Structure formats: structure tokens, C-alpha cells
């Protein structure tokens, strides 16, 4: 079948979080199964753009209210990602270094979606499935069904994957002119709580909706930033499919970003060598257990609890453990984590920002990964940790609940229930007790590295879903 993914992120082109990792892997593994998988995203000014060759495949025109713009679709030559990658270039709107964070983000992503739909109209052979990712692409199902300019697309099945329901792309009705002309009798399919809500619209209009873990789907019916009733109402077309990880990219035996490679049988020596390398880089003693946090410093991740939790832990351990935090986000949290460096210079460091190389080094070198998230739709970090023999310390929520079971229940990590300083501190102390038992630690690492969370295991669930929609489409025509 012919599958087109539409997304705002895709690793390694442009990545902010887990959405980028998923978008960069899912089409590749679908193509390995023999399907024609493609992906289209905005053309940002990232290093990837200048280090690859491109061919122009389409030029078109569209409008954003009174603003008429030209757009160009370019395709990466050589399929370096393992599938056809298309970028949408809209001069002045999309060609910027950052993915998000601009005051005109609503206009940027509406223009992107309008350009994609306009381009699709010109295809001789339409896709069998258009797979949309998060709110940045959420208006497309409505365009296809009720946009006057896209009648040719109304029978193309659409699948929406909700990677994070906290972000919904709210838009005041005063700005409805930014959208292409549509059947105003259907305007209720754009709305939720008296605003245009792209995520809600996608849930209403897409043929099927998936979430990135089964537990997250259940949680959304009770906690989804205002969409609880909608998820309950539409539950019949929703399913939870656990994300996978790219086992070729995330493989400690071949990882090109690591100084020292290892596998399950050499995990103890391999991790010791990588911990020594990363510890020397940060001026820490490699003979001590190393804890790490890798991620966005936002309330969703419970990162606001980190400064006080880590301070209490390091004070209590009195030099017996090391901690490295890698991430960026809310200035107040960054300041708190930066401030800890002055109090614990021999046992703590904070790298503000994101480094792909350092993240791989930390997964390989750290003994424990902390994930106290309040919201974690799926979580990939804990799967990377398992793959690299690093024990996850997780709060039971979303995908963390689906992938990590406490060692007290013969599981693969350490779990806690509350996003609180007390629960974080208790779990880190449990980790210290575990570290003091080398044989138990080695057996756990070996066990973790045997777990298969690769895309090969889960991609067939998407194919089955697509096929059911294609069959449904044939029956209804």
C-alpha cells in the first residue's frame, strides 16, 4: 500500500522530542515490509538541508487568508532515511532554524497543511492512507472532507496519531479566514470549547485515531487537557499502539556515537568503559553510581521537582553518587539545576540544551535513568535505557506503565506512583541499594537488554489498521 506520513518533526531532519524519533523510524520499517512509505514535513533551515541533495518535484500556490503564497515541494535524493522524504518550502514562513516557538506558529502550520493538501490534489495516484501526527497536521482530515478545494481527497482514509494531547493548536474563530474555503455548515467539526481546535478536529474527522501506548489512551478519557469527553465519545475509533524504537540506530553494539561498544554478554565491562569516558568529560568519579535525566525541562516531565529532589539525594548520599542532567526548557527549572553545580561540584553536572551524541553516551554510561513524568504518552527514553542496560526509574503513567515493571514484581526497572520529591528520593535510594548488589545488577542488565521494543514488533499493527480502513473504504463506495 501507499502510505504518506505528514508531520512537523522527523529525526534526523528536525527533532524536538519523541515525535521526531517516531516519524523518522515508522516509515522506514513500513517500507521494509514492502509498502511504499513516504513522509512530508516543513522545510526548516537545519543542517540536514545543506548536507543532502534535493530535487524539485512540485511548485504551487495557496492562500492564508488575504496572503497568497508560493510553495515548493522538494524530495531528498538517495533515500538516506530509508524512505522518500519531501519538504514543503514556503519562503518566509517555514524556512527558519527552529521547529516551534515563533509567534506566528499557527499561520506557519496552517499554511503547511494547506500546501500539502494542494499538492496532494495534483497526484495522479492518491495515497491509500494519509497518516497524520499531532495537532500540527490535524486540520487535514477536515480539509479532505469539507474543504471546497479538496473534493478529490474526500475518500482518502486518514489516521491521526496523538503523540501528546497537551498541545492542541487552539485558534480564535476571528482567524478562521486563514483556513481554505470550507463548508461553514460543518464548522462544528473544527470547534471545541468555542475555539478552533486542530487536535479536536482531527479526532472528530480522521477515520481512525491512535495513541502511542494503550495506557495513554485510557488516561486521555480522564486527563486530556479539556478533551476528555471527546475521547470518551470517539473511543470506538481509537486504539493504543505502543511505539517502537529504531533498533538499528539505538544499538550499543554498533552505535557510531559511542566510544566503547558492547552487547548483553559484555554489558558490565562495556558500561564501565562508557561511564569512565562520560565521567571524565564531566570531572566526576567513574567508580560511583551514575544517575541521569534526559529530556525537556517542563512540568509534564516533572522536571520542576528535579532541583529539590536531586539536592536532597546528593546531600543524603554525601558524595556516594553522581548525577548528570541533560535538557532544556523552562528558565526557572534551568536556573535551579544550574545552581546545584555550585553546591555539588564533585558529584553533579548540568548540560543545558540537547546533544544527540551526549544522550547516547549517557544511555551507555549511566547506571540509572530517572523519568518522574506527570504525563508520558509513550516515552522512548526508557526503551533506549533498556536497550543500553541502564535501569529506568519511572513513575507509573502512560507508556511507562506499559513498558516498565518493578523488579519487586520480577520486572525490569524501579517504579513509583507519585510525581513527588518523596517518591523520587525513595526510588533513587532503592537504586543505590540495587547498585550495591553487583550480581543482581548484572543479571538485571542482561535481562533488560533481551527485551524487544523494536519497530519490527509493532509496525504490523499499523498496517492491519490501515488495511481495515482501506477495506472499509472499498465497501462504502
From TrEMBL:
Keyword list, A-Z: Glycogen biosynthesis, Glycosyltransferase, Transferase
Alphabetical list of SUPFAM superfamilies matching this protein: UDP-Glycosyltransferase/glycogen phosphorylase (SSF53756)
Record's keyword annotation contains Transferase: yes
Single GO molecular function: alpha-1,4-glucan glucosyltransferase (UDP-glucose donor) activity
Domain called Glycosyl transferase family: residue spans: 278-441
Chain positions recorded as ADP-alpha-D-glucose binding sites: 15
Catalytic activity from the UniProt record: [(1->4)-alpha-D-glucosyl](n) + ADP-alpha-D-glucose = [(1->4)-alpha-D-glucosyl](n+1) + ADP + H(+)
GO terms, biological process: glycogen biosynthetic process
Coiled coil (residue ranges): none
Record EC number: 2.4.1.21
Chain ranges of the Starch synthase catalytic domain: 2-231
Pathway info: Glycan biosynthesis; glycogen biosynthesis
InterPro entries hit by this protein: Glyco_trans_1 (IPR001296), GS/SS (IPR011835), Starch_synth_cat_dom (IPR013534)
Protein function: Synthesizes alpha-1,4-glucan chains using ADP-glucose.
NCBIfam families from the UniProt entry: glgA
Family (UniProt): Belongs to the glycosyltransferase 1 family. Bacterial/plant glycogen synthase subfamily.
Listed name of the protein: Glycogen synthase
Native source species: Arachidicoccus ginsenosidivorans
Gene name of this polypeptide: glgA
